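Revision sheet: structure tokens.
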Amino acid sequence: MRAIVYDGVRAVRLENVPEPAIVASTDALVRVTLSGICGTDLHLISGHFSGLQPGTVMGHEFVGDVVDLGSAVQRIKRGDHVMASDFTACGHCRWCARGDHWECDDRAFFGSGRAFGPDLAGAQAELVRVPLADTTLLPVPSGCSDEGALLIGDNLATAWAAIERGEVRAGDNVAIIGGGTIGQLASLSAQAAGAGLVAVIEPNERRRSFAELHGALAVAPDRAAEFVRRLTGGDGADIAIEAVGGDSPLAGAMSVIRKRGRVVSVGAHHAQTWPLPISRCFSDEITLTFAIGDSIRLRHRLARLVANRVLDPTIVVGARIPLASAPSAYEDLADQKLLKAVIDPRL
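Predicted:
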């Protein structure tokens, strides 16, 4: 079958690889109808995380049709049109019972080598093997588009996790560091949650314009602290969401947060340490927390929001492409010419 595989630092290629097969009784095989290229994929191929080997099939976001099942799968049926979480979970351990599926001992993250757990081939391919299918997969809910379901599987779940962890309430002032896919979806999510002010802090002018077109205010990082404080009567943001990863974006979040405010980081971090301004955090009672999207926990609620048009995550999709065009789409995403690219392997 055809698949997009890792080909060394900052490179992917289209290759013919062996088709996956059922390995465990809890597996499903899914014929992919849509898959996504994510910012995490860019981090992975840039070498920010260890454990990705050349030849790894990339991609952790997908929608498709179930074509085969292991004997123990009960909730998913052959022929089901399904959406997927970007990682697997058992569904019954103490972590899963708490809704903390990312912490499951059986977690495997699609298309990332051993960066986040056991190696599991990804979904930028014609077929993908899905372990623990009863938990990992869900039939696409009525009224939810395939692109909406694809985005719920990771990007929207991550954005909503930031809103959830930040405890955004009606009227809150929210600053978002980064106007990439996660930042734009965090902006939509904050608006849907009733935020009084949403400011997207982003150096790229086109991304600032995009945020403004979709209901937020936007500002360049060098003006952000003064901009946010002016709009909040000198206080700063109630919640700052860091949606990029790295030292500078975290520092940017700290620069716009008010006393007793909450900073939530959903950016992908690979550094081992960061110089936390602990004296200020103590004296101003600032909360710093981190969150990873969990579509298994969130997807039923998010699908209702999408189906009822409370928010439309598909606005970030800038290209719909065949597998053969994926390598050039990776380049365009890295160059910030696109927010999101969706692959249709049938093209």
